[in-house]
Design goal:
Helix content is 41%, strand content 15%. With 388 residues, the chain is α/β, with parallel strands linked by helices. The relative contact order is 0.18. Pfam families: Aminotran_5. GO terms for molecular function: alanine-glyoxylate transaminase activity; L-serine-pyruvate transaminase activity. It catalyses: glyoxylate + L-alanine = glycine + pyruvate.
Length: 388
């Protein structure tokens, strides 16, 4: 059967993203038992392929129903205990939210905040780690509110140099599948993400991968985990069972979403993951050059080296605001996102270019459609590039 999804506005927010026909069709698969042989094989294969995306052989995936926010809860409730010290690197809205999550569990949080459009420096990180003993450090790989790209490899290097017992957790919600991540090589202890961004699956799955060191920290903690659904001690036997072809039950998995994930991961892992990273970087570079050179607009990240490859955050020019641009884009069938960071909320907008929007340039031409629409709507709004 050949399936094609209905015509719809082009979704180019920084997640959820466009999904392929094959993935969407898999999400409509018939009902089946979550203990059946066929689903066990599907789920087990997805667990194995997720490791390939993160370039890890030793990490243990935990894939459950939920959003990326559940990943914060999993990290907080499993890897910290009340009174523990945590260092949160803050490059936007989602660093603050991660900190709020930790505080819910009675954890003492220190935030290392960077100005809007920047991320904490290596020197600032080293100084912070020397100031006190932290149980865990978190880094938001791409903060979706600013489009700032942090460098988890450098973060992990500094941790090993200054505070080697500190666990390193990566919030990869807006980076897994679109940005380079080498979990084992870089020494990351946890990577978390969600299905609806770089993995190209409808929303509804929380995906976490824990290192051997992180799992040991859970198994040897002194206090009881302060969550039932989010407890890795409940989920680890389930994940290991499905991967070994021996399904176990804790909570019913979202069968159709996992079927969709399986199809997406097959496509992603059918080629070297480095090719996917390169395509996202190429798409990002091309689109950002258009924004800078043709439209003459500034971006939120203050340096190109810290600009995400899966999205672009763009300041409106003087005299132009969201109501002048975003509704006009909607009229042309293009859906972008407005501002999110409270300090600059009304001053910018965001365009996502992850998944098939970035990788399928032969049949879709998504970003060319976005460029053409932006040319027209800014012209209609009375804007001309002052540097042209």
């Amino acid at each position: 059967m050949t399936f094609h999804q209905v015509d719809h506005p082009l979704l180019v927010i920084p997640g959820s993203i466009e999904v392929s026909d094959d993935v969407l069709f898999a999400n409509a698969s018939p009902s089946q038992s979550h203990m059946s042989k066929s689903f066990t094989e599907t789920f087990g294969a997805a667990i194995k392929m997720f490791r390939q995306v993160l370039v890890t052989e030793r990490g243990q995936p935990i894939i459950t129903a939920g959003s990326g926010t559940l990943g914060w809860d999993m990290i907080a409730c499993n890897l910290t205990e009340p009174g523990d010290e945590v260092l949160v690197l803050h490059s936007g809205y989602f660093g603050q939210s991660f900190a709020d999550c930790f505080e819910t569990y009675g954890v003492k949080v220190t935030q290392l905040k960077a100005p809007v459009g920047q991320c904490p420096s290596r020197e600032q990180l080293a100084e912070a780690l020397k100031s006190k003993k932290y149980k865990i450090i978190t880094v938001t790989h791409v903060d979706t509110s600013t489009g700032v790209l942090s460098n988890p490899q450098i973060v992990a290097e500094v941790v090993r140099e200054v505070s080697p017992d500190t666990l390193v957790a990566l919030d990869g919600v807006c980076s897994v599948g679109s940005e380079e991540i080498r979990m084992d090589e870089w020494g990351l202890d946890v990577v978390m993400c969600a299905s609806q961004k770089g993995l190209g699956v409808p929303p509804g799955l929380c995906l976490v991968c824990a290192s051997e060191r992180a799992i040991k920290a859970v198994e040897t903690r002194k206090t009881k985990i302060n969550s039932y659904f989010a407890s890795w001690l409940n989920w680890l036997p389930i994940m290991r069972g499905y991967e070994q072809g021996k399904p176990l039950y804790f909570a019913t998995p979202p069968v159709q979403l996992i079927c969709a994930l399986n199809v997406s991961l097959k496509a992603i892992t059918s080629k070297p993951i480095e090719e996917r990273w390169t395509k996202h970087k190429q798409a990002s570079t091309d689109f950002k050059q258009f924004i800078t050179n043709e439209l003459g607009l500034k971006q939120v990240p203050q340096d190109p080296s810290i600009a995400a490859n899966g999205m672009t955050a763009i300041y409106f020019p003087d005299g132009i605001s969201a109501p002048d641009i975003i509704p006009r884009l909607v009229e042309r069938g293009i859906i972008v996102a407005g501002g999110l960071h409270k300090d600059i909320k009304d001053k910018y907008f965001r365009v996502g270019h992850m998944g098939i929007t970035a990788t399928d340039t032969e049949t879709r031409h998504d970003l060319e459609k976005v460029k053409e629409a932006l040319r027209n709507v800014f012209k209609d709004a009375g804007y001309t590039n002052p540097t042209a």
